[in-house]
Amino acid sequence: MARISSLIGTAIALAALPAASAKGLLERAMKPVCSAVSYVDPYHQIVDDAGYVLKNASVNDLTVSYAEGPDNGPPIVMFHAQLLDWFSYSRVMPELAKSFHVYAVDYPGHGQTVTPDDYPMNANQIGCDLADFIEQEIGQPVNVTGNSSGGLLALWLAANRPDLVQAAVLEDPPIFSSEAANINGTIANRAFNSSFKATYEKPDDFLIYWINDNSQYFINNIGPGTPLLLKTAVRAERKCNPDQPVEVGLLKNDDTDRMLLRGLDHQYDPRFGAAFYVGTWNEGFDHAEALAKVTCPTLLMHANFTYLADGTLNGAMSQEEADRAVSLLQDGTYMRVNATHVVNLDKPDLWLEAVKGFFGQ
Question: Which regions span the lipid bilayer (predicted)?
Fold first, then answer.
């Protein structure tokens, strides 16, 4: 990594020179840099080969971006975790396409989905628009699954639009823990704080801003010195592959953190996370009431969690919250999984077995 960091630093320094004197030197310097940092995720081609097509749909005031697979079975609609985008499901999409008609959706605030500047970032607004997307683009009841905040949106749909949802898989959603009364006791609130600050500090580069503001996360999860190396790699990757979401080669063996950087760089709207921080995202969406309203079969997938020394919840749900959630469901099934928060990335085979089995395929 030291050699890579040195190469990147040299290229960045050359990029700062006057264009006439630096052009040739920069081109020569960037070749080994691009070779070192560039990475094309093989699942781009694998997903393409499975028959997926990227599409946009005009829904109300939105342009909804989504990946649609071939019509090989009942429809399944998938909502990724906060900060990510549809491609985070790439590890499970090829297999799902064999027996489902898959729609992997960038919900508002994420990916290529476009919202008005004054779009209300809350569950009720987003849920209504996603329901309209399903009615307009699919036109029949669906199986729905969502991870993290996407799981909350799947819950919203199952509770409020039972006519559209046949069955639901909630993949480690922050039920109860993300409500305004509890959010301060979660590690997720630190990321929400970054989004909140960004809404008024308005950084020119949100990805670099987020790495700076959450440097301890990368140090804890990857290693010392990681924030500086990542920022340098991101800047170099952008020069190597302009106009593309970053896919940092240094993290090619760490799908979750690489997808995180891609999502943060891929038009993430910090107003989405800020709404959790200030408590408005869940306004009018009481989790207990929603769970009690759900009539369809629902699988609650609960990933690993721990507590920090100060008692902060490091995970989506405590055991007590998960137990309470499943007890409120009319037709609920609980599944404890030995996996990190984004189960479909960490343990894709486990996720596929659970989801395909639950949806009867």
Answer: none
